[in-house]
Design a protein that fits this description.
Blueprint lengths: L1 H14 L4 H9 L8 H4 L3 H4 L18 H17 L3 H9 L2 H6 L11 H20 L17 H6 L1 H8 L8 H11 L8 H10 L14 H9 L30 H6 L3 E4 L9 E3 L2 E4 L2 E3 L3 H14 L6 H12 L3 H9 L3 E3 L4 H11 L12 H11 L2 H13 L3 H31 L15 H4 L24
Helix pairs in contact: 5-8, 6-8, 6-11, 8-11, 8-12, 12-13, 15-16, 16-18, 17-18
């Protein structure tokens, strides 16, 4: 009987099944996801907010309830400064309440109540806007000793709120912020206004920008890290069928120290874009990255977003995969730090190396990633005979001081042996007899020149000289 009911149920669902286009539209609405336990178990703290909740996933959790009081207070400040009735803000979102719900994956049944859901969106949205505006220093209606919006709060509370704001499960749809700003400003703000607020708060000292509307705060921040490189043409990669296994180790990149031994130099890229990685002429250029206490959580949530949101891309995941390859230990971190690529605000170099190695756990790299060409160029360079010989020489003889001293001693002894041989052989050639004229017989004189020429006798005065003939007498 149960089997019959199951068959009937499946047939009914089959009859009401939507076509491919509607199914595609359904999945495109999703932008905020729950991170499954298989991922969060590796580092639960990285995906769970510690100070404040935004949205329905972590609403009213016990350790986050103290911030609810400050949300209510921020809402009142926002409304008083706006000078507009609350109904205008509610009506601006009421029409799209179902669209806002569709942004969340696996929404709990308690949020089927539209009124309750709208209250949450407006309360959390106004609080988030107040937090973002705090970076502009334009709000003067809070007390100087306010626990959140005072200078004291900006130092001790805001960094934790910023970390929570960049978690995938702790997002608000961008439409909520845009609608609240539109009503508050009578639609005088441009579409980039909220983006500028987000980037001013998240990256106050970095000149970055993000064009186009994002899905939420995390998406806007991600796009700011992936700016297009000026003057570099973006080319579309053609997908090719590839083997699931690495062929000949072409996709494996050595550590930074090993690459340096092979003659590869490291330089800091001109931009902070994670896409600004290039290799040309033996020089590997990498963007500068600041590593602090919030770096791990930020990157893990960006990787999770790329994993679950179809079409988001894989640039951040590729960057982490690349950095994990070239950073094996603290020596690699020290080398990259000396080149200005890694700015260590975390502590020891060993802690930074451990962080990059942990970020790449259980991630899958798209074989058609933007860094694939860089992988190939570096691999080809390292496989050249001269570079391999140089790397082996440095790895064998210049890894520690004792090996260097041994090599110097061998070279020195070899040089002494050559000098000794020269000084042994040189006197032999110096004392040997040299060729002279006494060793050879004197030259033979010519027969004509051996008999001296004599003049004819002069005639006596008493006799008359006979007439001379044309013959010469000898």
């Amino acid at each position: 009987m149960e089997q019959v009911n199951w068959v009937i149920e499946v047939n009914e669902k089959l009859g009401s099944m939507v076509d491919t286009e509607k199914e595609k539209e359904h999945w495109m609405k999703r932008s905020i996801y729950r991170v499954p336990a298989s991922i969060t178990d590796i580092n639960k703290k990285a995906y769970r907010p510690q100070v404040v909740s935004f949205g329905p996933y972590h609403h009213e959790e016990d350790h986050l309830k103290p911030m609810e009081e400050h949300k209510q207070r921020a809402l009142l400040h926002f409304m008083r400064r706006s000078g507009k009735p609350l109904e205008l803000f509610v009506n601006s979102l009421h029409e799209d309440v179902e669209k806002l719900k569709d942004c969340y994956d696996q929404l709990d049944p308690i949020w089927k109540d539209n009124n309750k859901f709208l209250q949450l969106m407006i309360l959390d949205g106004c609080f988030m806007l107040e937090i973002l505006r705090s970076a502009t220093h334009t709000m003067e209606d809070y007390a100087q000793n306010d626990p959140i919006f005072s200078n004291h709060g900006k130092i001790h509370i805001m960094p934790f709120i910023k970390r929570d704001m960049l978690m995938l499960e702790n997002q608000l749809p961008m439409q909520v912020l845009d609608s609240l700003v539109a009503v508050d400003s009578n639609r005088t703000k441009d579409e980039e206004f909220v983006n500028k607020l987000i980037l001013k708060f998240c990256s106050p000292n970095t000149p970055i920008s993000c064009k186009g509307s994002g899905l939420h705060v995390l998406d806007v921040y991600r796009k700011s890290l992936l700016q297009d490189i000026p003057g570099r043409r973006q080319r579309k990669r053609l997908r090719k069928p590839r083997s699931s296994h690495h062929e000949g180790g072409d996709d494996i990149i050595r550590s930074a120290m090993e690459l340096n031994e092979a003659g590869i130099r490291f330089k800091k890229s001109k931009t902070v874009s994670l896409k600004d990685i290039s290799f040309r002429g033996g020089v590997l250029k990498l963007p500068a990255v600041i590593v602090d206490d919030a770096t791990e959580s930020m990157f893990l949530n960006l990787i999770a977003f790329e994993r679950f949101h179809v079409g988001a891309g894989n640039e951040v995941t590729s960057y982490i995969f690349f950095m994990d390859n070239i950073v094996d230990n603290e020596k690699d971190v020290a080398l990259l730090h000396s080149r200005g690529i890694i700015q260590n605000a975390l502590g020891s170099d060993k802690a930074v190396a451990k962080l990059f190695n942990s970020l790449s756990k259980d991630i899958t790299l798209d074989p058609d990633s933007s860094l694939d060409e860089v992988h190939k160029r570096v691999s080809r360079y390292c496989k050249k005979a001269w570079n391999e010989w140089r790397a082996n020489l440095i790895h064998t003889y210049f890894r520690n001081p004792w090996a260097i001293l041994s090599l110097i001693s061998v070279v020195f002894l070899f040089a002494l042996t050559i000098v000794q041989t020269v000084y042994t052989v040189y006197p032999f050639y110096q004392n040997s007899p040299t060729p002279s004229s006494e060793t050879f017989p004197p030259p033979m004189a010519s027969p004509l020149l051996s008999t001296p020429l004599t003049a004819p006798p002069l005639p006596s005065p008493k006799h008359k000289a006979p007439p001379q003939s044309n013959q010469t007498h000898y």
